[in-house]
Amino acid sequence: MPEAPIPARDGISPQRLILRGVVPDDRSYWAGEAGDSPFPFGRLLVPGTVLDRPVPAWFHPPVPEEPAIPFAHSVVFEDLDLIVVDKPGFVPSTSNGRIVRETIQTRLRLSYGEDEIVPVHRLDRLTSGILVCSRRRETRGAYQRLFQDRRVDKTYVARVVGDVRVGEEWELVELPLHKERGERQVRVLDGGVDTRTWLRRIGEDEVEVRPVTGHTHQIRVVLSHLGMPVLGDDTYPADRGLALYDFSSPLHLRAVSVGFRDPFSGQRRVFHVHAG
């Protein structure tokens, strides 16, 4: 993503778009970076200015009123580069387009007064547990690449519905997954993206999970496919529809540990939270 010429406002990042024809008068726009732009980077564009070519620009998005999400995060660890939080279920890591203020990213930016705080990996809105966030642009890419290159060990605990269909020894489940654009559900489908997931039973209705790959909803799809869906899952095996502010049935899937070798110090780092 290109660098924005303006800072975040109220913890919410500016957005980029391409202006064509004329500069609108609905809000303020600042010129983005482009080799052939007639405007210097960061110039406030005058409404009504006729544009003879497409111009990249940045603006502060409108922020709608949002109900509060009544679940608090806690900080597990912090240093100059990272803030590691225990994310509650129902709170998005970043904006999903419908929730903007009540995200971990916005909450941390406001509480720390730092506009560069960004999660370096995904954690579904309904999933709770460890979320690693970067607080410095200079080191962010190195931590993001750890997750992109699968050089991170992640462990989850899921409480499931029905019989636990794996034993106490680790079992590797390999399934091809596919997601159609516009659909909420991910399906097991020949020709889909290959995924690998380690599973083992750790209790009467609990499974420990170590995903090797990182497909959307991977753990939830795999457990549902095996006949033991995660308790509280609103999408698998049946899609009950999106209800952002229905907190009555939490998803019992929790990221309990994240470990990696730090790209700068070379030290092994492991962050834990309780499974309950």
UniProtKB/TrEMBL annotation:
InterPro entries according to UniProt: PsdUridine_synth_cat_dom_sf (IPR020103), PsdUridine_synth_RluA-like_CS (IPR006224), PsdUridine_synth_RsuA/RluA (IPR006145), RluA_PseudoU_synthase (IPR050188)
Pfam families: PseudoU_synth_2
SUPFAM superfamilies found in the cross-reference section: Pseudouridine synthase
The reaction(s) this protein catalyses: a uridine in RNA = a pseudouridine in RNA
GO process annotations (BP): enzyme-directed rRNA pseudouridine synthesis
Listed GO MF terms: catalytic activity, acting on RNA; pseudouridine synthase activity; RNA binding
Record PROSITE patterns: PSI_RLU
Highest taxon of source: Bacteria
Keywords: Isomerase
Domain Pseudouridine synthase RsuA/RluA-like: 81-225
Name of the protein in question: RNA pseudouridylate synthase
Source organism of the structure: Corynebacterium comes
Gene that encodes the chain: rluA1
